[in-house]
Amino acid sequence: MKVNTxxxxxxxxxxxxxxxxQTFMAVNEQxxxxxxxxxxxxxxxxxxxxxxxEQVADILKTEAKNVLFTSGGTESNNTAILGLARANTHKGKxxxxxxxxxxxxxxxVKQLEKEGFEIDYLRVNKQGVISLDELRAKIRKDTILxxxxxxxxxxxxxxxxxxxxxxxxxxxxxxFHVDAVQSFGKLPLTFxxxxxxxxxTISGHKIHxxxxxxxxxxxxxxxxxxxxxxxxxxxGLRSGTVAVPQxxxxxxxxxxxxxxxxxxxxxxxxxxxxxxxxxxxxxDMVHIISTPACAAHILSxxxxxxxxxxxxxxxxxxxxxxxxxSACSSKQTKTSHVVEALNIDEHFKKGVIRVSFGAHVxxxxxxxxxxxxxxxxxxxxxxxx
Length: 385
Ligand SMILES: Cc1ncc(COP(=O)(O)O)c(C=O)c1O
Hints:
There is one protein chain. The protein is α/β, with parallel strands linked by helices and 385 residues long. It folds into two domains: 6-14 and 260-381, Aspartate Aminotransferase, domain 1 (Alpha-Beta Complex); 18-256, Type I PLP-dependent aspartate aminotransferase-like (Major domain) (Aspartate Aminotransferase, domain 2, 3-Layer(aba) Sandwich). Helix content is 39%, strand content 15%. The protein is built from twelve helices and 13 strands. It has helices at residues 18-30, 40-60, 73-87, 103-114, 132-138, 161-171, 244-259, 261-280, 308-317, 337-341, 346-349, 363-380; strands at residues 6-7, 67-70, 94-98, 118-122, 143-149, 175-179, 199-203, 214-218, 286-288, 298-303, 320-321, 323-324, 352-356. Strands 2-8-7-6-5-3-4 form a seven-stranded mixed sheet, sandwiched between helices. Strands 9-10-13-12 form a four-stranded antiparallel sheet. Helix 1 (18-30) runs antiparallel to helix 7, helix 2 packs parallel to helix 7 (244-259) and helix 3 (73-87) runs parallel beside helix 4 (103-114). Residues 6-369 form the Aminotransferase class V domain. GO terms for molecular function: cysteine desulfurase activity. Its EC number is 2.8.1.7. It is an enzyme of class 2 (transferase). This is Cysteine desulfurase IscS.
């Protein structure tokens, strides 16, 4: 029997929107000239690139000259952290981040540490949220950079980034970088208002755009050191021929993400609630890691003494695709740094499963998911059906 595939691993990556694929094809067909070329075709592709930049700037409420197109969340995070820290050593060498950041942030700050920077990590509580008091205690006059994710990729915890920004700006001259890879298009986030991020990372493939595309955007022009050196494209800040089709496709995906945000969020919230109710029937056999305050599109849970891979394979046999808590580290056997930070009971540490919704998921998919979870968990519990 062929089972329908229900893809619920949208925090790992999403299926591109049909419209985004059409845009990408059309731009590749017609506007393939190098946007740095001075002939008419180059001027046309540059105009298209500039329009894409303006569209992203408009969404984020900044100016087009503050939007850079990159190869994705990893490059944007690396560039923001290494670039901002290395260019501001005259103000200090202290950097703050949290212990549950994505590895593209954690590895960047580790690199800074090797270069003589001092790194401090904010801890999180069992809900995965930092303490503003700890931030107040750890921020210093010589802190030059604070990097904090908006939504955690493994369990959906939302950080109080606007309150955090107010503290950072009041207590230091630090730049406040927000990794919004998991929140853009799911929660409101712009540069509007006094207190908010100074710098935002977005990834195309998490918003039904393409893998290998991203944005690094700034509130205003800032001092930072580029790390891709060469022809001086992207205002001299990221060398390399700009991938115009990716940029235009990303702008399209970003617009669609923002336009559909409210409807999708309502769906995600309802589906998350349905899933919570279904899991609650299994009592202390299941531990739901994501709290109701977490982002609506992610629900992480764990089954007592069951390995994540076992559960993933069992669900997959019924056509349901989910992942262990994070796709980047899912092939590693050690417990993830996020699960460790949450201080989860030993019985639930090995089997954290992440269900993540996206724009192509339907209510029927969720009904089927719940049926499959019931079947699989009852089997695991050793009950006869
Ligand atoms: C929170 C977060 N930051 C950064 C990244 C890296 O983004 P990319 O895959 O575009 O390099 C990811 C990807 O999973 C993520 O979830």
